[in-house]
Write a structure and sequence with these properties.
Length: 101
C-alpha cells in the first residue's frame, strides 16, 4: 500500500541520514518501486518521496535523488514550469555544497 511504502521511504531517509553519505539498499529499492509506479502512470509516488527528501535533507547524498525524482514527477504531471524551478533549486544547492567542500 502507499502508506507502507511511505513509511519505508521515511525509514530509509532517516537511516541514511544517520549513516552519513552511505545510501542504503532499502532506499534504492524504493526508487525501483517508484520507477514501476511511473510505468503504471502513478506519478504521485515519485513526487511524494521527492518532496519528503527535499523537505528534510538536501545533503550531497540526496541531491542526485532529488534531482531525478522531483523534476521527473513534475514533468510526468505536466507541470513543466515546476520542473524547471526544481532543477534550478537543485543547481543552486549543488553550488552551495561545492562551496562548502
Amino acid at each position: 500500500s502507499d502508506l507502507s511504502l511511505s513509511n519505508r521511504y521515511w525509514e530509509a531517509v532517516v537511516s541514511t541520514q544517520s549513516t552519513g553519505d552511505r545510501i542504503l539498499a532499502p532506499f534504492d529499492e524504493c526508487i525501483n518501486y517508484i520507477q514501476f509506479a511511473n510505468d503504471e502512470c502513478d506519478y504521485g509516488m515519485g513526487f511524494e518521496l521527492g518532496m519528503c527528501v527535499f523537505s528534510h535533507e538536501t545533503s550531497k547524498s540526496f541531491m542526485g535523488t532529488i534531482r531525478s525524482l522531483l523534476p521527473m514527477a513534475y514533468k510526468l504531471l505536466k507541470r513543466q514550469l515546476y520542473a524547471q524551478i526544481m532543477t534550478r533549486i537543485c543547481d543552486e544547492e549543488d553550488e552551495k555544497i561545492a562551496k562548502n567542500e
